[in-house]
Amino acid sequence: MPSQTAPKIFDSLERFRIEIPSWGFANTGTRFGKFLQPAAASTIEEKFSDAGQVHALTGVCPIIALHVLWDFEDGYDSVPHVAELASRFGVRPGSINPNLFQDQIYKHGSFGNPDPAIREEALRHSETSIAIARGLHSRDISFWFTDGSNYPGTANIRARKRLFEECLRATHARLAPDQRMLIEYKPFEPAFYHTDIADWGMALLLARAAGPQAKVLVDTGHHYASQNIEQIVAWLLAENMLGGFHFNDRRYADDDLTLGSIDPYQVFRIFHEILFFEWEEGRRADIAYMIDQSHNLKGKIEAMIQTVAMAQDLFAKAALVDYEQLRAAQKSCDLVRAESLLQDAFATDVRPAIREWRASKGLPQDPLEAFRQSGYLERISLERAARNMASAGSYA
Ligand code: PSV
Ligand code: MN
């Protein structure tokens, strides 16, 4: 490996931290059913424990994203318990995700619902979510909405846009000065005709309408096939409106596949746009890197470690692009040279340097293998199997 690459890789690893989702450790499925895993987490304590394992082995996941309805059994009153778990397991709460989609009242939407009483209920839930975030010293509240419609003519699209603006503005007014509101978009599912926040442009306009602490959240799975996500990232960076990511990979739609399993070059290109922006601007972009994956078939903790390692690998590769040369090649329209700079960085095997970096931190060089040797999975499988199997019906 050329001598100048190792320090660049080390620097990139020093700064790269990624947030893991509590829901990634729980049993989830498709709409056709669930294949339950004996080791799946079903309590918030188990989720923290599993996240703590991932962090202990990788050293780069000190933060866990939480979903209000799934993780805060007693709403705001759960805050002290969650805070205690955070200090016990050495992972702090990250983004707080309100749940404005599961309750029966949200059949026709939340912030876009034509019924003012339901919008009021949604606003109250958002307020509680903000209070929970404040109680846990979490900065970001991540909003994802299922709002939309299934059939042409059934919803007043413009009226719903107005309602969204009003509700988001009212929610923004509740934020503490150091909090942020992240607005996630998704083109379809569960609504199939129109989704109220269907793409990054809509999320951007709504974030601007909400207020200065609102930013856009890019979930990599929430795009149409072959969409140029790195261009969206570049534009949001240029507008200072990129708040964070939900990373996962996709083949068809919102597949929630392991990051980089289908198209690692795309993730590399996204990281490249960010790092190139930072180099040109001489400042860090304030971005929350989060994973949003729920694995149904792979082992959940294994898949999370695999994802984190892949993210580190691709981030380190992106850090190897020679920006000085790239800028010169772009200016002189030396296309092959410019493109090769990206391709060469992507082709570099950064794994030996990553192993070295881990060793220098006292971390296992191969976190996945270390996990397999640790006995943790066997232990939790024994502890949790009975409960998980009881809910499995014919699974046992
Ligand atoms: C929806 O598909 C989503 O991407 C949102 O971020 C949710 O909060 C998350 O997945 C979990 O369902
Ligand atoms: Mn998401």
What does this structure look like?
The protein has one domain (5-389): Divalent-metal-dependent TIM barrel enzymes (TIM Barrel), CATH 3.20.20. Helices cover 48% and strands 11% of the residues. It contains 15 helices and 10 strands. Helix 8 (229-238) links the parallel strand 8 (214-219) and strand 9. The protein is globular and about 65 Å long. It starts with a helix and ends in a 6-residue tail after the last helix. The structure holds alpha-D-psicofuranose and manganese (II) ion. Manganese (II) ion is lined by residues 144, 184, 219, 246, 292.
The proportion of residues in beta strands is 5-15%
Question: What's the count of strands?
Answer: 10
Strand order of the largest sheet: 4-6-8-9-10
The tally of domains stands at 1
Q: What percentage of residues falls in helices of 4 or more residues?
A: 40-55%
